[in-house]
Amino acid sequence: MKGVSQGLIIGISIGVIIGVLLAISALFCIRYRRKHSQIGNSSSRRASTIPIRTNGFDSVTILSDSTTGQESPKTVDGKNGMAIWLEGAKRKSVVSGIPKYPYKELQKATHNFTTVIGQGAFGPVYRAQMSTGETVAVKVLATDSRQGEKEFQTEVLLLGRLHHRNLVNLVGYCAERGQHMLIYVYMSNGSLASHLYSEKHETLSWELRVQTALDVARGLEYLHDGAVPPVVHRDIKSSNILLDRAMKARVADFGLSREEMVDQHASNVRGTFGYLDPEYISTRAFTKKSDVYSFGVLLFELVAGRNPQQGLMEYVELAAMNAGGRAGWEEIVDSRLDGKFDVKELNDVAALAYKCINRVPKKRPSMRDIVQALLRIVKLRYSRKSHKRVLSATDEEVVIDVDQQSENQLPISRLRREESIDGNKDTPEV
């Protein structure tokens, strides 16, 4: 009996030991799987991020594909930032909703990069005929451009989620063979600057200039009030406004753009001389109102047909002393318009532009207010034209009625004379 009880105790002990070992093994397995899953998730997140370099040479700010979150940007070493970007581009054929194109396809579409249509700070721009038959513009980053590399990443990140009829749409990118290319919708009528200053183009009519201003204002209104988070462009100028086949204007070149959640303060002044907000130059803080200032300069450029880098604003300030900021802006109007503009409309546009360049940013209108002001100007123009057509049609009807009445009166007088003559014939002679 004693032997049986000892055997039972030994059996139970062995069972307990085996159970404990199995439990420990199961616990290790669970921990291993969780750790493996976390590593996989973190690597996939790294692959889907796009770095944006800050002004510091050794740091890169990384934002995830979804830029609407409230998480703070993470900073990594600048030397590895581009490697992360390229790794993500290789693993995924689409970044931020933008398709990735192979280098060979773009090489063939541009005839080995010989179809140059422009040259900018970023690098050369080529016209490309894709295999689908679509014509696009390919902007290639210059290989020695450090700043261009940052602008490349910024544009892909931003334009992957910004879509508006008055923004130039990014349709693809290429990050291969050490090359970085951005692929845009082709804008067949080139830049606004080329139409204002090149003799190859006919002079833009006043009506088209106002419509261009409205198109640009709508694009900027979307960036400031429609995008989440809001975006400031930072480089509004006539060479960054492109015209499509129907002469509709679109805002281009987002290389310097910043989201409001990303580093408003920069150590270096960036932008184009002549369009820069004086407040930005003194404080290094670029805001929506800085874009408004640049837009005001663009408005005066449309009015005067004069380059801001060649003394436009000095010209404007002299005119403002006489105009008082509201009327009398005719003296700065582009002579190529040959007087073909409405004086009141001109003064309204110039007065709006003068508000945009106010030295005090808080006194400048918002882009939404600017859009509404330009819409009123355009609607008043069409209202005046409609009124003139109605008056013209009324005058025409009056002339027709008078003519018809005159024609009807003549036979009556003749008839009366004839009746009188006939009556005399019937009267018996005495």
From TrEMBL:
Which keywords has UniProt assigned to this entry? Answer: ATP-binding, Membrane, Nucleotide-binding, Transmembrane, Transmembrane helix
| Keyword Membrane among record annotations | yes
Query: Known Pfam families for this protein?
Result: PK_Tyr_Ser-Thr (PF07714)
Q: In which residue ranges is the amino acid composition biased (Basic and acidic residues)?
A: 415-430
Keyword flag Transmembrane: yes
Question: Which PANTHER family does this chain map to?
Answer: CALCIUM_CALMODULIN-REGULATED RECEPTOR-LIKE KINASE 1 ISOFORM X1, OS01G0750732 PROTEIN
Domain Protein kinase stretches: 111-390
GO terms for MF: ATP binding; protein kinase activity
SUPFAM superfamilies assigned: Protein kinase-like (PK-like)
Specify the domain of life of the species encoding this protein. Answer: Eukaryota
**Transmembrane intervals:** 6-30
Disordered: annotated span: 411-430
* Gene3D superfamilies, sorted: Phosphorylase Kinase, domain 1 (3.30.200.20), Transferase(Phosphotransferase) domain 1 (1.10.510.10)
What name does the UniProt record give this protein? Protein kinase domain-containing protein
